[in-house]
Design goal:
The protein is of the alpha/beta class. 38% of the residues lie in helices and 16% in strands. It has 14 helices and 13 strands. The strands form 3 sheets. The chain has an 8-stranded parallel barrel, surrounded by 5 helices. Strand 11, helix 12 and strand 12 form a beta-alpha-beta unit. The chain starts with a helix and ends in a 6-residue tail after the last helix. Bound molecules: (3S,4R)-3-hydroxy-2-oxopiperidin-4-yl beta-D-xylopyranoside (XIL).
């Protein structure tokens, strides 16, 4: 991959004298990864056989994800990583700018981080992410305004009335959306293009019981979309959820919700399919689900793609067979999204992490869900995704 060929040149002077950084390189996963660059000459154009590495788990990429896709390709960031000049984070940022054109805050723009007290907000991490995006020509997808798993402690224990609780949440949604609408590029386009307004409203096919259903009511999701739209008439508003491909009941509930919103004039622009997949699941449901969601006519965002290779915890280290199955699953995700979703509805595809060790699913090294190994080498999962985005059929 080009980044590995240029990094030594660009960074050699810079890295000398830098501290070892705030990320500890963990155990090697995905096979031997030493000697990341077999080609000492950085001017040599990349070969296109895509497989000149000697180990079966990594390959030399010749195409950047964003150059292959006709829609934005995203990954996650944090304000602290973007601010860090450790060697790992410098490599991370080089790769981010090279392969991606959209970013999502992994945690920094969640309610739990930004809603610090009654009528009190701390947007500083989000602002840092937005200014990085602005300086580097990246789009920001806002994630997530209301999610049962990211509620600040004070709001959880809020002792006011239900009306006062609702007023707090309404104030938060409006203030947050309005604040992030202010940042624009040179042509007046917003940096924050979109928000996941409500995350994981459903639990299976049913409405999830949460603090929000208890204190606002089962229609809190509709109110949230209306509040967000009042704060910004243009930003794209998404509903986001997991297992949309794997659970047909949840999928049907989401499709019904979209019709209900339409009938009741509740504003919504798109649906985020998180896409936390396993190497062998879902299988035939994956294209069906993408089709069902595209049939709503709304924008479709693959919002948090990763693929577990060890869901059942049945392997101690990654096997070639498992890595290849995972490669195919990445290819399927890219292929079906590219070929099934009409172009006008393709909002983008976002990966949920860089190195395996950065993944929320890493689990102490017992899974390898992402596109780069712990030395930032491109894994064959990357090759699978590139093939899928290129329209190469996996079946
Ligand atoms: C996860 C982050 O990756 C973790 O760092 C954090 O501890 C918990 O949240 N669905 C979502 C994401 O919508 O916000 C979650 O992100 C992963 C599941």
């Amino acid at each position: 991959m080009k980044v590995f060929k240029i990094i030594p040149i660009l960074l050699v002077g810079f890295l000398i004298g830098c501290s070892s950084g705030d990320d500890v390189t963990g155990p090697q996963v995905g096979g031997p990864t030493e000697g990341t660059d077999p080609d000492p000459d950085p001017t040599t154009p990349p070969t296109d056989n895509g497989s000149d590495n000697s180990d079966p788990f990594t390959y030399d990429a010749t195409q950047n994800l964003k150059d292959v896709a006709s829609f934005p390709i995203g990954n996650i960031v944090s304000a602290s990583k973007l601010a860090s000049v450790s060697s790992d984070n410098t490599t991370f940022k080089t790769l981010l700018n090279q392969e991606y054109n959209s970013i999502t805050a992994e945690n920094d723009m969640k309610m739990g981080n930004m809603f610090t007290g009654p009528d009190t907000y701390d947007f500083s991490d989000g602002d840092a992410i937005v200014s990085y995006a602005s300086a580097n020509g990246l789009r920001v997808h806002g994630h997530a305004l209301i999610w049962h798993s990211s509620i600040p402690g004070w709001l959880n224990n809020f002792e006011g009335t239900d009306e006062e609780f609702e007023a707090q949440v309404e104030g938060y949604v409006k203030a947050t959306v309005a604040h992030f609408a202010e940042a624009t590029d040179g042509e007046g386009n917003p940096i924050v293009a979109s928000w996941d307004v409500v995350n994981e409203y459903f639990d299976g096919a049913s409405v999830r019981t949460s603090l929000f259903t208890q204190r606002i009511g089962a229609d809190f999701h509709k109110k949230a979309f209306q509040w967000a739209r009042e704060a910004d008439p243009d930003v794209k508003l998404f509903y986001n959820d997991y297992n949309i491909a794997g659970e047909v009941g949840k999928r049907n509930s989401i499709v019904n919700m979209a019709s209900e919103f339409d009938a009741e004039d509740i504003p919504i622009d798109g649906i985020g399919m998180q896409m936390h997949l396993n190497h062998d699941w879902p299988s035939s449901d994956l294209p069906i689900a993408i089709q069902d969601i595209a049939d709503t006519g709304l924008l479709v965002h693959v919002s948090e793609l990763d693929v577990k290779a060890n869901y059942s915890d049945d392997i101690d280290e990654l096997t070639v067979e498992r890595a290849e199955a995972q490669e195919v699953q990445y290819q399927r995700a890219g292929y079906y999204y590219t070929t099934i979703v009409p172009q006008t509805q393709q909002f983008g595809l976002t990966l949920w992490g860089f190195r395996d060790q950065d993944s929320w699913l890493y689990d102490g090294g017992s899974d390898w869900p992402l596109l780069y190994d712990n030395d930032f080498n491109t894994k064959i999962t990357h090759r699978g995704l590139v093939a899928g985005l290129n329209g190469e059929s996996p079946e």
